[in-house]
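Appendix B, example 12.
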Amino acid sequence: MDIALAEFNGLRAEIVSRATAQSATLGLGLTAIGLVFGFAVKNRAGGDELLAVPPLALFLNLIYSAETFRIISIGEYIRTELWPYLERQAGQLPSWEQRVAAIRRRKSTVAMALLLDAPAFAIFVGSSVVALVAAHGDTKQDLWILDAGLTILAAVLPAAIGLAARATAATGQ
């Protein structure tokens, strides 16, 4: 029982650590993108400098969504493996992870995911779109098209990862 409680405490600490990493990613990403835009505006640079934003946005969104996936996976393990073991040892216990899983099974899961995760993704994808619009006409077309594709990936891949993680956790599969 003591080992299971120690594992529980360690996993909860890891969730906090990963949430902190998400916040740091958001802060560093905003700073980096702000520096690129600031440099481009200050130096009246052409669009080539702004084309650093779409790959950066994709990278940041993937890191952010990977942390989301890990947090959900840890919570799912606690809910389906560790907590039932603790309940067998100590009797029925209230469980936050079971409560969250019940919320995920509701029809509002997608809306909730969008409300909770979309603002961070939207900031990076939005800045990528702004960079593309500002750089259009000032850069080589093939480079611009590549960055447009990266912008699409910055929106689609993290959303797919997040929805898949939530669906997997909600169904317990």
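Residues 51 and 141 are 11 Å apart (CA to CA). The helical segments are 2-42, 47-50, 53-90, 96-104, 109-135, 141-171.
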